[in-house]
Write a structure and sequence with these properties.
This protein has 1254 residues and is α+β, with helices and mostly antiparallel strands. Helix content is 45%, strand content 16%. Helix 4 (87-120) packs parallel to helix 34 (1045-1055). It holds the Pfam family PhoLip_ATPase_N.
Amino acid sequence: MHSLKLPFHIHRERLPRKRIVGPSFAEDEDLKKVLKSYQSNKIRTTKYSFLSFLPKNLFEQLHRIANIYFIFLAALNFVPVVEAFQPEVSLVPIVLVLSVTAIKDVFEDFRRFHSDRLVNRQLCDLYSSAQKDYVDCCWKDVRVGDFVRLSCNEIIPADMVLLYSSDPRGVCYIETANLDGETNLKQRQVVSDLPLQFSPENFHSRIECENPNNDLNRFRGFIEHASGVRVGLHSSNVLLRSCTIRNTETVIGIVVYAGHETKAMMNNSGPRYKRSLLERRLNRDILWCVALLIVMCLIAAVGHGLWLKNLKDPIFQVDGEMSPALAAFYVFWTMIIVLQVLIPISLYVSIEIVKLGQIYFIHNDLDMYNEEQDSRIQCRALNITEDLGQIQYVFSDKTGTLTENKMVFRRCSIFGVEYPHEENARRLAVYEEDPNRGASRTVTLKSACSRKSLTCRSLSCNRSSVSLHTLTAESGEEDQLSSHPQAKTAAFCSPMAKDVVPDPALEKKLNSLCSSLLHLSDGLFKTTSNLELTYITDFFLALTICNTVVVSSPGQPRHVVSGPVSSIHLILNQSRKFHNLFSFSCSSHPTCGTAFSITPSASNQDSKEALKEAQISSDRFKGSMEDQDEDGSSGEDSEDELLYEAESPDEAALVHAARAYHCTLRARSPENLLVELPGIGSLPVRLLHVLPFDSNRKRMSVVVRHPLTGELVVYTKGADSVIMDLELYSHIREQTQKHLDAYAREGLRTLCIAKKVLEEEEYDVWMKRQLLAESSIENREELLLESAQRLETNLTLLGSTGIVDRLQEEVPETIEALQRAGIKVWVLTGDKQETAINIANACKLLRSSDQLLTANCDNKDACAALLNELIVEVQCGQEGVSEQREDPSSGSTGFILAIDGRTLDWALQEDLRSSFLELSRKCKAVLCCRSTPLQKSKVVQLVRDHLRVMTLAVGDGANDVSMIQVADVGIGISGQEGMQAVMSSDFAIPRFHHLRKLLLVHGHWCYHRLANMILYFFYKNVMYVNLLFWYQFFCGFSGSVMINSWVLILFNLLFTSVPPLIYGVLDQDTAADALEEHPELYQAALRVIASLVLIQVHLFCFSKQALAGSDVDGLSFGSPINTSALFIILLHQVIESHTLVRICGSQVVLVTGPQCCDGPEPRSEPMVCFCVADMDSCARLVSQRCLLFRLRAALQHLLHRLQPPHQPAGGGASAAEHAPLLRHLCRHHSDGPDPQVHTQTHTDLFVHVIIKTK
């Protein structure tokens, strides 16, 4: 580590808003006041307290306009001149709804309170200045400025700056699984310039850092010692809350952020709440109901005024002093109270209950459980389940989403020479045929965690701790692991990735490294030139050390480079003799940017000694390898002893590939690496600096001291599009580019390897600027990026690699099903265009009959011209094939657009957006290649906002987070790249193929259930209100009701509340198998919401005629009407429910008369029989409509049989009265299925049947 020492009086950079941290027991009063102003470590995620619950909960519930409306009605009913019934009765519905919601909120808040209490009461070691020792303290009592001591396996209670580690190198290892889901260990470093024997009493420094934020990968600040020396702080010096200490016995840190100011808590947003499209439509429909209510009340008010004006000699009491206009005004408000049933007060609560039930069944679907990862679907957004049934565009990442993200080395190119690795290809083909062969030892999260806990035991770390969220015991898992020694695995370490078969030609060249020294005079270099051998050596050395891989083994938690020993001295002396024998110097060359000339520079005696020692070393190395080969088990164990924990699967694949050529990374420490080279043995490599990978640079670099030459060398690996621009032109570049294009056509992921030799003076100048950038607080990221770009220039290209990433299972079938469902699939990837096209072919997104359109432009004008040209081409192509295709959605399925990142930048600009959207709408799919995370989010936002469609984004990595958050529905895949995508998503699934059932089955069901439930709510309320409204025509529009006030109020809350809930949670209009076999039904569900047709209820007219001339009162008149209405409303729910039909059996038989009419003998008694058979077969053909058509026919038959043969004129209802209705039904039945289900027609017809049946 390096520190930048500056005098105190030199200009200091400060943030506009900064945080100052010092020891909490300091004598500085100003510092104590500042520390007390910061938050404590006590967390509180509850929404309410005991005193604030009632007012706060009421305030939140009053955000719903419906609740305000019913509170207004309840208050209005207390006004005597407009009251419709007892005032206290009107309070029941709103009080009941508010109470149910409040009880639900209390239950949820209590669960949060219980979880907070468990976390706050966990213990840690806190330094006490009074006792001069560490004492046990609860997490909630930790404050900023306190010193905390942690042991192995303990969870970090707050964000701390690392000041001490029991590791002599000042290193600490942490596991961030609770934070981002990544199980591979991260390395943290103690702040430099601190004494090895740390004591809190002797710490008098001050920390100045940025204010709390939610960026997990950034920390800016510095520590200022009493002497005025400033040392820069960055993310590698910080231990974040909820992470776990691993493989380190003791660490000490000072708290800088506590409680809700920690990065973990600032990223813990909890469940995501969004407004679904159906909910937004619902608000609009309720406004229409309000408008309908006002119209009905106006009609009643006008009718009452006219009735009073024209009333003469009334036989009942009428207030003659009140003017008709004022009476009409009062009746208007009275009718508002009477017809309040029209607004469904319980609808919002019912929707919430139904969605919770739907989420429960989605969450427990075994078909979406992944046994290998031991994970299932997670529903993080609780209120957008129905949006899953309305998706029109799917935007998918490629790596880790469509593919396994289990990288396996396939082939490479070095010095312009391609090595196909044919045996390796055959090995991968065997794994492709037998996936279980590679899956038998695949890493799971559980085994990885258990293994790390087991290795901690080897360090005598006996203290254990509970997880931040759950209390689990690991002893059972550890015992199980210890009984299975073959389960020794590491992150991204599967047999398929490890067992790389070397290419014979390349292996022969690499093994000649030592032989070339012994047989220099034998003319061996006639086949392998010195220059090519140097390139090959540097290539594999770069694969070995240009990474952040941590080396471990079951017996030793971390392989580190300890102090120099005699063997190291021997190797160093041998390396110097190699350097004296072969001097690698750079010189300009007309065809190569940097060429190497090998010139003997030692005396013959020195050469002989060096060659002799090299021969001895080589013989020892080969002898040890032969001994291991003779003992098969030991050899296998030796190979398996090294476990590589990489931050990405690419790194692991390259390290395993280098190891296959005996270039092995043996150990790592912050400043040294131990590398084993073929024919030479183990060599220490001085690690001077690491420039980590970032999405802007698209590369990573390491600065090392070359183990053989002693030169300062920069090794860089990254995307070919970036490395090629930084590389000096050479003949190798042309050949390598051809190989890269061939790799991309095969669907391989490509990386380029390059190097650069630095002069000592050049490195010193760069290092000073780098240290200034690291210690800077303002614009630190920009300065670091500029410093890295200054170093990574004029590179020498060494070669390239091709890494294979297999498709996940059932990806082609899933994409095909989504397209058949009318969903367009876009792939947004950072890979090359050729790679994306190859993957599109593999997953059936691009078929042989489709036409591929590529858009690659260098400037904006060319992009505009190309887009217009492609639009014309697509239009002409669609006109040519439209007559041959019957499916209207397939008229644009013949074109696939592939656009690169540079062209996409132009296309997303304001003046070219319309052209890009017009072209993309006409294409079956779009492949966006070389896309940055920002471009992904812009594409999703553009399609969502301008086309006004429902969008879904699915990804698995941190680079997909912005795209997932922008989409209407975000899906995260818990894959190999941590949990960032999952934490930002609405739903998380283990594998991509689970998206098929999530959308086509659960999405269809959720949308269909909720849509029909909402329609049913409006239907039953309008039907019930019509009874009250019809009655006003016979009571002078006075606002009187013929139904008991309690029955009227409880109509929505009690009598008709439970059936819609059961329907919304359990009903299945179509079987799951049928929905998956026929994805077209998904698109049919989008048309399920039909226009609401007002119901012509004949019950009132029937009751009036039946009771005409009698002396019954109003309630006796209204009771049968109310009972019949409830019966018909509930019967309609039964008819709508397909699940009830299945439960009752495959046939529903209605019979009138003593026997069924299908007997062997003719019957003279009046009887009717009809059957609705085989519900499942109807469900496969859009079951609801098929069932209703057969019900039409049955009801027609009932009316025909119930009509008397000789009815007197003027008595009863004649068949002619029903002729228009019957003709209407027959016409609908003959025309085929109607997309809109007119359920009112069947209700009217069924009412006629009931009326005519005695």
